[in-house]
Design a protein that fits this description.
heterodimer, A: 512 residues, Amino acid/polyamine transporter I, B: 326 residues, alpha+beta, SH3 type barrels, Alpha-Beta Plaits, 3 domains, five-stranded antiparallel β-sheet, four-stranded antiparallel β-sheet, 10 helices, 17% strand, elongated
């Protein structure tokens, strides 16, 4: 039995004003945020699935993962409309499973976004070093380059939410242009033989070289195509009409990304040098461009094109860790000083700087640890594991809210209902098991488990006594009180032989 | 050497993906129904149909891959999958009828569908699926069985002709929606009243005298129906009032204004559009007035008329004669 959290500490009168965000986003801003958050995974990361499962295996895995993300997006869009706070998974976990559940979901989110950014900054730094070396002949040290990258994107995020969304839209459009340009260029060069050139193992076929097991091993790699779309759910407090714009933006984004994922999977695997080479490469799109354009094209140009996707996701990642640290700090789960927002710009500058410093430190560990490639993989796998864990918590929260709060006002209802959430949950649990089954992922999983355990110990020993009635907490407390009151009334009326009509939980407007 | 049955073409790979996805969604549908204690049968049924369809289409690889141990040969597998497929289709039709048709009818204001009808449709659905399985999957002739079923249906139809007629008329009324529960109506030349119930056999109306009028559905379907509550609940009432004749050269405007004042003060009469009184001349020693006004709800019509008559009676002689026209 976990010790209870609380009681809530009192708040100064101007607290809400000092920790508030500004609303500026519409559907297309959220579309931009969603696409930019994910798009790096369409540039790289997925290709190892070609070796694990072959073209057919990765194709099936991508279909399954697309179903999972579609179900997931519909479900979180419903929750984001009903609980429109910047906490995302933390807010849903808090209402469904109490402060411990909220903290675990929030900690998983923090891990995912902070470490994804630290891995991305290393990749971006490598590309920039390559480009600078070939153009001006000077490559700054990695530590300086990464600090500069972090500084630029933290400054954009601190400057204002409007600029943040504008940059996200711009980077999304540029990234999509690169992927569409590649796809259009690859169509005339497509050859099914290239896509099926992975040598079958004993018992395998050309389409499924590793047999049915290959599909299972390809699933974690297929996640890369759509990983981090849930960053959109961190934007309700900065969205003008969250109940309407958020589901729309999120579903537009996931539709765009699914289309791009299949185009890239088929066309990148199906052009020279073929699936075997693409599947062994860190940079499949670079190989694909070389395959269709030949060696004559300046590698710097291709490097710049490939860099755009990484930068887009890095920008969205900075936004995401800023919001998730901000909301957990605002409620007292982590030090409250991190939740103060900029006096005039209303952006969570302290949370952004704190997240950037942690990510920067992790990136330094990646590069300067004795066994650096392994640390890199560990951080990457930790973020994947944390993401899958947060999906499981969020889908469980969706089902718990359906069961315990059927009267909660939901401006958007998932067309797939509880079955959709359960489908996403079943596939996410399968992915988690498969991540465990793959020895390459185990150090990452172990790292994530250790980190989350440390976080839980901190919360149990200290954090749980520092909570305040932030918007997410106040909303959850109101809902719990209404539910208890309804339950008592029902008990009394049932004892008196009368029926109790469904009561409706309070509608959230994004403020305490 | 490829293992037996592993898909090796795009169509087979896509079918395999479909099998995995629909198996997952079927499990998810069953689990969510269990967790939420909520009926989820229609979703589950459609998932099962799609899953079985893909297993039938992909028999070439699905049988050796997963079912070779369970069935003696491919033909047994095909028969089993097709049987399950037709039964799943019947199940989908059964659940779909219950959720979309019967409950839909009940939601539209009708009382619960008779259990006999539900049971009959249900049995016929599964019987039909079973006949298809016997004829097309197992290749057995169903002519004798079908003849027997036909004869049985004929006898049933003839003996329940009247009831069935009422039932179909009820469906026609439910679809055309000439009125809803609570509306004030007059069916043909019968007394007007409020619709209090609509069943599969009759429409029940409560008249102004608080009598219950049971009108068979067929009669309602054939008759013209006045609905005083649709499309608006407000109703314009028009009536002719006879008052003592005016003296020669007298201005009828004063009496018209008295009539308007009287009707305006009655509760239930709407201020807009305003009441209108119109003098139409002296006839057989009495003055003929046409009075028009709008009331908020037709059920107050008699009370309003009564009040108007009383108010006109107070300062002046009572109306000589009164005839209503609505």
């Amino acid at each position: 039995m976990l010790p209870p959290a609380g009681p809530y500490l009192p708040l100064p009168p101007d607290d809400a004003e000092r920790r508030s965000l500004r609303r500026a986003a519409g559907s297309w801003s959220l579309w931009g945020l969603g696409v930019s958050a994910v798009i790096a995974g369409e540039f790289s990361g997925w290709s190892y699935g070609l070796i694990a499962g072959g073209f057919g295996g990765l194709l099936i895995a991508t279909l399954i993962i697309s179903v999972m993300y579609l179900c997931f997006c519909c479900s979180v869009a419903e929750m984001a409309g009903a609980i429109p706070f910047a906490g995302g998974a933390y807010a849903y976990g808090r209402l469904a499973f109490g402060p411990w559940g909220g903290f675990l979901a929030g900690a998983a989110q923090n891990t995912e976004y902070v470490f994804t950014c630290s891995v991305l900054v290393v990749t971006i730094g490598d590309y920039l070093g390559f480009i600078l070396g070939h153009t001006i002949g000077f490559v700054p040290p990695d530590a300086v380059l990464w600090a500069a990258i972090y500084a630029i994107f933290v400054l954009i995020n601190v400057h204002g939410v409007r600029l943040t969304f504008q940059v996200a839209i711009l980077l999304s459009i540029l990234s999509i242009a690169v992927l569409v340009g590649f796809s259009v260029g690859a169509v005339p060069h497509f050859s099914l033989a290239e896509a099926l050139d992975v040598a079958p193992k004993p018992g395998g076929t050309r389409w499924l070289p590793a047999g049915l097991g290959g599909i299972a091993y390809a699933l974690p790699f297929a996640i890369w195509f759509l990983l981090a779309i849930e960053e959109v759910t961190l934007a309700p407090e900065e969205t003008l009409e969250p109940g309407r714009a958020l589901p729309r933006g999120m579903l537009y984004a996931i539709a765009t990304l699914i289309l791009l994922a299949f185009a890239i999977l088929v066309l990148n695997a199906g052009v020279a040098p073929g699936a075997q080479a693409v599947g062994s490469s860190d940079n499949p799109l670079l190989l694909g461009f070389q395959g269709i354009l030949g060696a004559a094209v300046d590698p710097v140009v291709i490097g710049i094109l490939v860099l755009i996707g990484q930068v887009a996701s890095f920008h969205a990642g900075v936004y995401a860790f800023g919001r998730t640290i901000f909301t957990q700090a605002r409620a007292g789960y982590i030090p409250r000083a991190l939740s103060l927002t900029h006096r005039t710009r209303k952006t969570p500058h302290r949370a952004l700087i704190a997240g950037a410093l942690i990510g920067y430190g992790a990136a330094l560990a990646v590069r300067y640890a004795p066994d650096s490639p392994q640390v890199d993989a560990v951080l990457l796998n930790m973020s994947v594991f944390a993401a899958v864990l947060s999906y499981i918590v969020q889908m469980s929260a969706f089902l718990a809210l359906q069961r315990n709060y059927p009267g909660l006002r939901r401006p958007y209802r998932s067309p797939l209902g509880a079955t959709g959430a359960m489908t996403a949950l079943v596939i996410a649990v399968a992915c988690l098991i498969l991540l465990f089954a793959n020895p390459a992922y185990r150090p990452g999983l172990l790292g994530c488990v250790v980190l989350l355990l440390l976080a839980l110990i901190y919360f149990g020993a200290y954090g749980r006594r520092r909570l305040v009635l932030a918007p997410e907490e106040a909303f959850a407390v109101d809902c719990e009180s209404l539910r208890q009151a309804r339950s008592q009334r029902q008990t009394r009326r049932l004892a008196g032989g009368q029926r109790e009509p469904d009561s409706v939980a309070p509608a959230a407007d994004g403020h305490a | 050497m490829p293992s037996a049955g592993l898909p090796d073409s795009l169509a087979d790979v896509l079918a395999l993906a479909g099998v995995i996805i629909f198996a997952t969604t079927s499990v998810a549908a069953a689990l969510s129904a269990l967790v939420l204690r909520k009926e989820n049968l229609l979703y589950l049924a459609t998932q099962l149909v799609l899953l079985l369809l893909l297993l039938h289409q992909g028999a070439r690889w699905a049988y050796p891959l997963w079912f070779a141990d369970a069935f003696d040969d491919r033909a047994s597998y095909d028969r089993a999958i097709l049987t399950l497929l037709f039964l799943a289709l019947a199940f989908t039709a059964d659940v779909g009828t219950r959720i979309l048709l019967w409950r839909g009818m009940a939601r539209s204001g009708r009382s619960a569908v008779p259990p006999l009808l539900v049971g009959t449709v249900r049995v016929l659905t599964y019987l039909f699926a079973l006949l298809i399985v016997i004829q097309f999957v197992y290749g057995q002739s169903i002519t004798a069985l079908a003849t027997l079923s036909g004869a049985f249906a004929l006898i049933l139809g003839l003996s329940a002709q009247t009831t069935l007629g009422e039932m179909f008329a009820g469906i026609a009324i439910a679809l055309s929606r000439p009125f809803r529960l609570g509306d004030w109506v007059r069916v043909g030349t019968l007394d007007e009243g409020r619709v209090v119930d609509m069943t599969w056999r009759l429409v029940r109306i409560e008249t102004r005298d608080h009598h219950t009028l049971n009108i068979p559905n067929r009669m309602v379907a054939d008759a013209s129906v006045y609905n005083f509550s649709h499309p608006r609940r407000t109703v314009r009432v028009s009536e002719t009032i006879y008052l003592p004749a005016l003296p020669e050269g007298a201005d009828p405007a004063a009496v018209e204004q008295r009539l308007i004042d009287a009707v305006s003060q009655c509760p239930g009469v709407l201020a807009a559009p305003p009441p209108i009184a119109q003098y139409r001349g002296n006839r057989s020693g009495v003055a003929d007035y046409r009075l028009r006004y709008v009331i908020g709800d037709y059920r107050h019509r008699d009370e309003v008329k009564d009040l108007v008559r009383r108010r006109m009676a107070e300062p002046a002689p009572a109306p000589a004669e009164r005839r209503r026209e609505t």
